[in-house]
Design brief:
3 helices
Length: about 140
């Protein structure tokens, strides 16, 4: 079993909102080695938050820079929104129709200062948990 990474669309939105989750997984933005939106993992790369460039070591002889944005897993972005912004995103199952088909939706809880919370209920039903979570994460980012 492995973690699902956020999509390029979600990563772009997170980057626009100033979200920086330090992880060795990136999406290329402007690079001759990778097409835009290609996710890559390089342990020798460091992203600079001020200009979104990664400096990558290629052996000991040289380094190069590339325009990139962080590509965290869904669970890391979910935790970031919860811990840093009091936005809780969940994916929940629903039974539909007479055949008890299971579909997935999302809810976004915004924890308010007085201890109450506001709920935004998703209106999109999908067949996959991760897809509903991804759409919910995008909705959570839009609240920033």
């Amino acid at each position: 079993m492995k973690e699902d990474f956020i999509t390029y669309k979600t990563a772009k939105l997170a980057n626009e909102k100033g979200v920086k989750i330090d992880i060795n997984s990136f999406f290329a933005i402007d690079d001759y080695l990778y097409d835009e939106g290609t996710r890559f993992e390089v342990s020798e790369c460091t992203c600079h938050t001020e200009d979104d460039y990664c400096t990558c070591l290629s052996g000991e002889e040289y380094s190069y820079s590339k325009k990139c944005i962080y590509a965290p897993t869904q669970s890391l972005l979910q935790k970031y929104l919860r811990n840093n912004h009091k936005i809780v995103v969940i994916s929940r199952p629903s039974a539909v129709g007479q055949y008890d088909t299971i579909v997935w939706n999302y809810d976004i809880y915004t924890i308010l200062f007085n201890g109450t919370f506001k709920v935004d209920v998703g209106k999109i039903l999908t067949e996959e948990y991760e897809q509903a979570l991804e759409i919910g994460l995008q909705g959570g980012l839009k609240l920033l």
